[in-house]
Amino acid sequence: MPAEPLPICDYEGSDYQTSFWERGQRNYEDQAEAVALRRLLPPCGDILLEIGAGAGRHTPRYQGFARVVLLDYSRSQLRQAKERLGDGGRYTYVVGDVYRLPLVPGLFDAATLIRTLHHLVDPPGALRQVREVLKPGAVLILEYANKQNLKAVLRYLFGRQSWSPFDPQPVEFARLNFDFHPGAVRAWLRDCQFHIERQLAVSYFRMPVLKKWVPLKMLVGLDALAQWSGAWGQFSPSVFVKARAVGECRHTPPETFFRCPNCGHFPLSPLTEALLCPACDRRWPIHDGLYDFRLD
Ligand SMILES: C[S@@+](CC[C@H](N)C(=O)[O-])C[C@H]1O[C@@H](n2cnc3c(N)ncnc32)[C@H](O)[C@@H]1O
Question: Which residue's C-alpha comes closest to atom 14 of ligand 1?
């Protein structure tokens, strides 16, 4: 866990789901991602962690899992997710920070991190936390924004862009919005004890003119074909990676679920409408069905 709090791209109060996805003409991107997920996600499992779940756009796509934990830093995004998906026992809503996951080690069979890495100043720190909560052999589906995309390469080669898409350093194109180099992401994954099994190049046709004139079904079909090229080279704006957790994990007593993001202790003691950390005395409230582990 980081000693000092890291800056976070806070979506509190944002209407991202409506403005970006529902009114933003992004059916192509959404469906291309659905194809990638179908290809990479294990067909079934006990428990999946969706990190940076937002308003739960992808959550209905995790049908094969008996239980899904939606984790996001923003309370309002999770409230929107809860409104869309309902309360039913299958979903657990957790307000928390990926750099300080409030979950015990070795809990999950799978995790997804989609359109979230690009907001992180410390991707290796986040990936270490994700690896810790996965069982050995569990699968992580990671999506990241690719700085080595075709448009950036052409702009650079024709002198229209100062930064090199081939440089492994991240590029912060707006505050807390980063594009990453595929080689850097692969190196972070390996350092955090993940084995990369597959890479898909997603959203090659993210151009207004194509989205306007090519029928959606055809564009998604073309994307589905182009995605396989990710095995040889990644020049698309978005890349999906399937990585498997390797190595061992810390032993956790059975029946434990949450840990304290302040001091790392588990188990926590249940109170009425809260969980208490017996080691540091912090109370973590549960309100409107949201387990709230925000430190601020
Ligand atoms: C672009 S949205 C993506 C939402 C969803 N995955 C999707 O694809 O529709 C990014 C989400 O990441 C969350 N987020 C950003 N930084 C975070 C952090 N440090 N810990 C947990 N969630 C974070 C934001 O609150 C936001 O809901």
Answer: 52
Q: Where in the sequence is the domain holding 181, given as residue range(s)? A: 16-292
Whole-model pTM over 0.90: yes
> In the numeric block, which tokens belong to residue 122?
């410390």
221 contacts: CB under 8 Å, gap ≥ 6:
none
Measured in angstroms, how far is the CA atom of residue 10 from the centroid of ligand 1?
8
**For the chain, how many structural domains are there in total?**
1
Q: How far is the CA of 8 from the centre of ligand 1 (A)?
A: 10
Cα-to-chain-centroid distance, residue 196: 16
**What is the rounded CA–CA span in Å between residue 61 and residue 77?**
18
* Ligand 1, pocket residues at CB < 6 Å: 8-9, 11, 16, 52-54, 57-58, 72-74, 77, 97-99, 114-116, 119
Q: What is the pLDDT of residue 89?
A: 86
Q: Tell which one of 48, 93, 116, 290 to mutate to probe ligand 1, the residue whose CB is within 8 A of the most ligand atoms.
A: 116
Residue 2 lies in a domain: no
Reference 123, options 83, 80, 170; nearest CA is 170
Closest CA to 121 of 102, 98, 143: 98
Rounded to the nearest 5°, which phi and psi values hold at 267? -80, 165
- The tens digit of pLDDT for each residue in 215-238 reads 999 999 999 999 999 999 999 999
Q: What is the CATH number of the domain that holds 164?
A: 3.40.50.150
Residue nearest to atom 27 of ligand 1 (CA): 54
